[in-house]
Design a protein that fits this description.
Radius of gyration: 22 Å
Structural class: alpha+beta
Low-confidence stretches: 1-5
Strand content: 25-35%
Largest sheet: 8 strands, mixed
Number of domains: 2
Distance between the termini: 37 Å
Shape: globular
Helix content: 25-40%
Number of strands: 23
Strand order of the largest sheet: 6-5-4-1-8-13-14-16
Number of helices: 9
């Protein structure tokens, strides 16, 4: 009797490729952008490629505050040319470390960074942007080269002690001033010295850590792709390049799982979930000063320990179905009112008086850019199915409650969202959070319509439903 035909073989491969810029590149993520003076720890593009015998998908997480869409698109074009993988099969996301080199500089100089939602066309790639696109493609090629028969599983844990909503209702009107001459209902990152000012957080957190795990057929760990809704940690020295807690997590998980095989070294990957309104500051707690890098080590180690605990119960299976889709959703951009334009012009005039808000000149420039920018933009929305797990990818800093809604309504057994993926269109509050105001809702920080979260959530859920 002839042997039964063999079924499809599931394969996986992983890689990390150095994307550290040369010193002198500016570090972005705060209102002040210093030049980098030293490297504390390298920056990487970390990649996991999965192949079910019919469909192949690649997940790439890059240590950067936010890769603009044109950089992601350039990388995807190189990946298509070198590997045949189309844009829907490749997810490229930024970790959102605030201590990496800028990928938003404009060729030819100028003070205005490249921001998705403000741009009318594809800018020209600068040297570091071209380097990033090339190295991202290299990382995918390396991971494909390392594909081997594998088993895959998923797990979930929880680490609630490291996440806090950063938007607060506060008593003082002065603390709630905005850069447009008015006041908001909430304040991002209120000063912690006077606890009596704090009323309540404006939203929830999501403490869940969801992860995909792949092993060689003999059980050797190959990679873990995790997802946690924490903005970043910070606490670096001035001028330092660092991958933040995302890098600490990757190294600590490698130590815990013993993934040090020379032939296929273990790759730990942490992706940024829906953390647009979440950080690591306990505003009501009694914080103690931390030495540089101490806090990010504490957070990275704690999250890695929880993943390691949950990992012990993961059931790895020899095959799952893969599916990937990428769509463009047309959104209106934020448009300033006539009053906002007049206020911005007045604040930028040489005769402007005392500032109402310390960042009003910056946001006045944002207002004028928005007025001159496109009225609509196409926003890439990606949905991937990995067996029983749904992965959403949004090119935006997404609020925690949006991620919680996607998890609750997903038609698959488990789901998570990777933010700042395939672009960086600013922040995305819910319509209700828009009404409260605050930094994340300001025009310039937020660049798409207030109903964006409703539209993108509905589209993602429909895409997952079509894959079910």
């Amino acid at each position: 009797m002839a042997a039964a035909p063999a079924g499809p073989v599931f394969r996986a491969g992983a890689d990390r490729t150095d994307v550290t810029p040369e010193l002198g590149v500016v570090i972005v993520g705060n209102f002040v952008t210093p030049a980098s003076t030293h490297v504390h720890d390298p920056l990487y593009a970390r990649t996991l490629v999965l192949d079910d015998g019919t469909t192949r998908v690649a997940f790439v997480l890059v240590d950067n505050v936010g890769l603009p869409r044109f950089v992601c698109d350039a990388a995807k074009q190189l990946i298509r040319e070198k590997t045949g993988l189309g844009p829907a099969q490749v997810l490229i996301a930024s970790t959102h470390t605030h201590s990496a080199g800028s990928a938003r500089d404009r060729v030819g100089g100028g003070t205005d960074e490249i921001r998705d939602g403000f741009e009318g066309g594809a800018p020209v790639l600068g040297p570091y942007q071209q380097f990033l696109a090339t190295r991202i493609a290299d990382s995918v090629r390396n991971a494909i080269q390392r594909l081997e028969p594998a088993k895959i599983g998923w797990g979930a844990g929880s680490e609630p002690t490291q996440v806090f909503n950063r938007r607060w209702h506060v008593k003082s009107e002065e603390l709630r001033r905005n850069p447009f001459g008015g006041t908001d209902a909430v304040r991002m990152n209120p000063p912690t010295a006077n606890k009596d000012e704090l009323v309540k957080p404006a939203g929830p957190t999501d403490p869940e850590i969801v992860f995909l795990s792949v092993q060689a057929l003999n059980g050797r760990p190959l990679a873990v792709l995790a997802n946690y809704s924490l903005h970043y940690v910070g606490g670096t020295m001035a001028g330092a390049i660092s991958a933040d807690y995302f890098g600490v997590f990757a190294e600590r998980l490698r130590e815990l799982l013993g993934g040090d095989a020379a032939a296929a070294p273990f790759v730990g990957i942490m992706s940024n979930g829906t953390s647009g309104d979440v950080n690591n500051i306990d505003f009501r707690g009694r914080g103690t000063p931390a030495a540089p890098y101490e806090k990010m080590r504490r957070v990275g180690n704690a999250v890695a320990a929880e993943v390691y605990r949950a990992y012990q119960g993961v059931v790895h299976v020899p095959w799952v179905k893969l599916e990937a889709r990428l769509e463009e959703v047309r959104l209106a951009t934020r448009r300033p009112s006539a009053e906002q334009i007049a206020y911005a012009e007045a604040r930028l005039a040489p005769t402007a008086g005392k500032a109402w808000h310390p960042n009003e000149k910056l946001y006045s420039r944002h207002v004028l850019r928005a007025a001159a920018g496109p009225a609509e933009v196409n926003v890439p929305v990606q949905a991937i199915r990995v067996g029983e797990v749904g992965v959403a990818a949004l090119p935006i800093e997404t609020f925690a409650e949006i991620g919680l809604e996607l998890k609750a309504k997903a038609p698959l057994k488990k789901a998570f969202t990777i933010s700042i993926a395939n672009g960086a269109y600013g922040y995305m509050p819910t319509p209700a959070q828009h009404q409260l105001g605050g930094y994340e809702s300001w025009l310039g920080t937020n660049r798409v319509e207030p109903e964006a979260s409703v539209k993108l959530t509905a589209r993602l859920l429909a895409m997952w439903e079509e894959m079910k």
